[in-house]
Amino acid sequence: MFKDKSLLLSGRKWGIVMLSDVEIAQNAEIWPIDRVAERAGLTPDEFEPYGRDKAKITLQKKRARGKLVLVTAISPTPAGEGKSTVTVGLADAMNQAGVKTMVALREPSMGPVMGLKGGATGGGMAQVIPMADINLHFTGDFHALTSAHNTLAALIDNSLQQGNPLQLNPRRIVWKRVLDVNDRALRHINIGLGGMTSGIPRESGFDITVASELMAILTLSQDLMDLRTRIERIVIGYTYDNEPVTVAQLGVAGALTVMLKDAIKPNLVQTLEHTPALIHGGPFANIAQGTNSVLATDTALQLADFTITEAGFGADLGGEKFMDIKIPILGQAPDVVVLVATVRALKYNGGQSRENLQNPDLKALQAGLKNLARHLQAMQRYGKPVLVAINRFVTDTDEEVALIQQFAAQHGSQAYETNVWSQGGQGALKLAQAVQEAADNEQNFQPLYQADDAFETKLQKIVTEIYGGRGYELAPKAQQQLVTFKAHGWDKMPVVMAKTQYSFSDDAKQLGAPEDFIIHIRELELKNGAGFIVALTGNVLTMPGLPEVPAANRIDIDAHGRITGLD
Amino acid sequence: MFKDKSLLLSGRKWGIVMLSDVEIAQNAEIWPIDRVAERAGLTPDEFEPYGRDKAKITLQKKRARGKLVLVTAISPTPAGEGKSTVTVGLADAMNQAGVKTMVALREPSMGPVMGLKGGATGGGMAQVIPMADINLHFTGDFHALTSAHNTLAALIDNSLQQGNPLQLNPRRIVWKRVLDVNDRALRHINIGLGGMTSGIPRESGFDITVASELMAILTLSQDLMDLRTRIERIVIGYTYDNEPVTVAQLGVAGALTVMLKDAIKPNLVQTLEHTPALIHGGPFANIAQGTNSVLATDTALQLADFTITEAGFGADLGGEKFMDIKIPILGQAPDVVVLVATVRALKYNGGQSRENLQNPDLKALQAGLKNLARHLQAMQRYGKPVLVAINRFVTDTDEEVALIQQFAAQHGSQAYETNVWSQGGQGALKLAQAVQEAADNEQNFQPLYQADDAFETKLQKIVTEIYGGRGYELAPKAQQQLVTFKAHGWDKMPVVMAKTQYSFSDDAKQLGAPEDFIIHIRELELKNGAGFIVALTGNVLTMPGLPEVPAANRIDIDAHGRITGLD
Predict the structure, then answer these.
(1) Average pLDDT of the residues in B296-315
(2) Residue A199: its chain B contacts at CB < 8 A?
(3) Mind telling me how many Å the CA of B89 is from chain A's nearest CA?
(4) Taking the complete model, does pTM exceed 0.80, yes or no?
């Protein structure tokens, strides 16, 4: 797997990885993308190379679909619990076991790469490559979204400038601008200053690109014309008479679709073990559906016997949205759900401080297991088998691992230790075996709600059946919005809950499995093109900031193109 | 050349093109990029495909350089005079004549594509393809520049937010933000609003991406490390003590270079006649050097016996900057200069109104020829042969063409009729023959000024020897800036004149060849990374706006991916 085998061995000998992620990725043997495409079963006219190690896919003929595995997680620590790493490692393990498997992941956002962390493509021996490219511009999908989003914004302001034929109220324009940069100074801005020829002065702001409704739309579209129709439906603002104004009325859906004609095609890369990987789309997991594109998952399902995919944050957020928003469009439920847990996240949920998570602590672990139990219950209610993957860290003790396994068995599941970070696919062979067996089930998928359920019913079911709370409360603003949404017939769309990832409740400090809580919904947001309503609890940051010492200060490149600091 | 030959024939029969540019481009037979690369003499490890019809080039071994031909033009009408079209057609003609020739052009900016016009890749039968891709995201170079530029901006505002360790004066930050969108509402904005956690309030704005100093830098860099060094030199603002602050002090040149690691590689595409074409970089021709990258031109020179390249606007702007800014870095002067003239632009310069340019008018033409004479003189002073290409329109009469030819012969040149729009390379065979012959000269290149000439000397020479004016005047602000620049030793860099393209003078209404004028320099701008000083005359718009009915309202796509409205 490595150009220089000794690099790998030095790690393996100690059971741990001695190299940084970017060192592993840059020293890995990478297959030409043609070979990966061939392994995936693509004909030469079904992919277009982007560089020697990336490609975009357009299937030319329909195939029968294989089985689907969703990887989700318990409530995480702020450092994350290695969901992508397990997803990659599990797919590698399945292939090692002779099962034709592909992995389908989200694309990383470049803003955070330059901010807090270097990369988001798995870790250790379970990574997708080319790591640097995927973390930077990749095949340009996010840039195309940024361009299309901002072109629409410019067209809206131009419409104001050119006599405002649509009678848009400048104070009620809801379409902001976006950049794939962590730039807090652009959150709240005044635009259109500088006189008559430079626009109409008004308040506005920038979100990060992954928060764009176009991102949600692109990743929920079934084809180019579905994309165009959804773009037409986007509500960009309201008239002086409070009537909604759509992109269709502005007459530019065609141009925006043209700008996204390549971004809609799924991207093919590979894992360190040359498992074909589709990486496509990256919608936020709080204000959007938080999972890779419908088209990429559909493509993987058609190409492989097993597709391993993941959803953002914990099962309460990404898992629920995967089941209730993506599945109805994809038209296929997961055959198995894998819930990633770590000893340290369970201890964190059991009340242990972040500084002491590496110390053995069966008491905190025991206390934290109620978090696992509730996530298990939430996923089990959809009717399909749920397995637990314990993503093992070197500091975990065997007793701690055994305790989780015992607990899972008592809660209608089975827990499997995985060591994919240090061992790659080799570290998840047992889980792979269990996934294969569990996938062979005849159980029916049980959706949480029906499409024509009332908005209130959907909300109540999410809060009670997924979060384990008592109910919800709409703030006056949200109540008023709901009246408007009902008047326009928008209330029958699925709900996207924008909630903290650290708690089942809307209070990030309520770890573990809080009881008897109420979810407070401050405000609603219409995403008419994406086809859902966002219910905002608390403040959701849609434009991150940079830390005191940004990752950009560590990243560098030499004359040979070797990159450092990208971890 | 066409998939459906009847499409071509219907045009050829009438001597004119019956199809729109995008119809021609989408119906053209396109070679797989591997075949184009092979024709260009690239080994398989010297290019990376981007899709099936685009590639990025990294030469692995040095070759001897061929000859260089610069295509420039007389003062244009607002519609443009077909300089890119002639450049493409001439290269096709050279190849038809059996001379191994490549073309090196700038990349179009997407903002204007969605605004006033659909495309900028030549026209009629003399185009580069894939036309839609080149006009949209292409290989992502502009997006990489936008990202790197805005990441730097975010890092600057973050430095202010995090205690301002560099003591930057928020009112003296000169690094703005950019988008490749025509968005007048972003010209003047207030950022950092919304309280303590969302930045420091200050005035700022957005330019269009092609106006970014990073664009000028990327296209003047000789390699990745030169790029990094230039980025380090960028002055982003001044301290409270008026000391300049550079990117080096911010410590992020490495990260920005990483973001541009692929953008620096020249892009390979083809003309309709499969001539290998390098399209790379697109700096403004007023506030920057206005020509494609040094690396792309160098690459073409090494691959072909003849490289045909162009420079933006007229010879007074793009031509002068090519000679005085690009050539010293490239290290090779053009062997021949081709000056594109049209009958209608000459009539326009002779006082005819825009509405009547298609009517025969020998008197206006005669009057306008003084514009041609002055451009001829300006280019001839560099010592190399200058030929005139008459880009013929169907409304031009034979008498008009003959008059230009007679005039050129009287002014030390020769004029050749070209019909590349309707005939492709076939329409420029005589010009191709003349270029070949003229290139066989031993004349020395005579630079306009020396690197260590004083700033004032450089300015004076540009105004008198190129524009034919009497001299220049520095406004008080510019005088004051020059004192500062001298104190920092910045005054020895070349001058980039930001001037109207419609006149030799700084008054767009003074057509033809005005006499005895003074160039008024309002303000200077330091581009320390790019390595030049911009001298601003009048107002230069660095962020265009959209028209009343933008091109975006006409552009559309169907379920088969066929694009309309992109002309």
Answers:
(1) 97
(2) 184-187
(3) 28
(4) yes
